[in-house]
Amino acid sequence: MSSCSSTVHTLDLCYCGLPRVLKTSWIDNNPGRRFWSCRMYLKNERSGCGYYLWHDPPIGGRYQNIIPGLLRKIDKLEDEIKALKKKQKMTICILVGTNLWLCTCYYCCSDMVIDAFCGDIF
Q1: What is the pLDDT of residue 3?
Q2: Which residues contact 30 (CB under 8 A, 6 or more apart)?
Q3: pLDDT value at position 30?
């Protein structure tokens, strides 16, 4: 017996009888436009009951052209931030490794070895 077969629903419930949820579309045709849907849509590999109702009026003209481009720019900047964070971690690892090596030289090696490799650092 499926609870999704009911044809009766209220403004607050989807066809499954669950409270509907407000989501935002980010596809190029309706960027930023909100809609009501079944809360099971795209959860746990279920498609839900198919309940769908636009909350916002259609987006027209200029906004429909501008928003997708802005979203692509945001994605590109987020990718750049990830790459920079990865580079920063690598730099920190190199600096920490170099510092550990220098400390090891300082504490474990004779003064002659330190003078030969490190000069006037210490």
Answers
A1: 36
A2: 58, 59
A3: 83
In Å, what is the CA distance from 93 to each residue of 58, 89, 97, 104?
A: 51, 6, 6, 16
Alpha-carbon distance 30 to 65, whole Å? 10
Q: What is the DSSP string of 24-53?
A: E--STTSTT-EEEE-TTTTBTTB-TT--EE
**pLDDT tens for residues 58-104?**
877 777 778 888 888 998 999 999 999 999 988 888 888 777 777 76
Q: Which of 77, 55, 56, 60 lies closest to 11 in space, CA to CA?
A: 55
Check: CB of residue 22 under 8 Å from CB of residue 12.
Answer: no
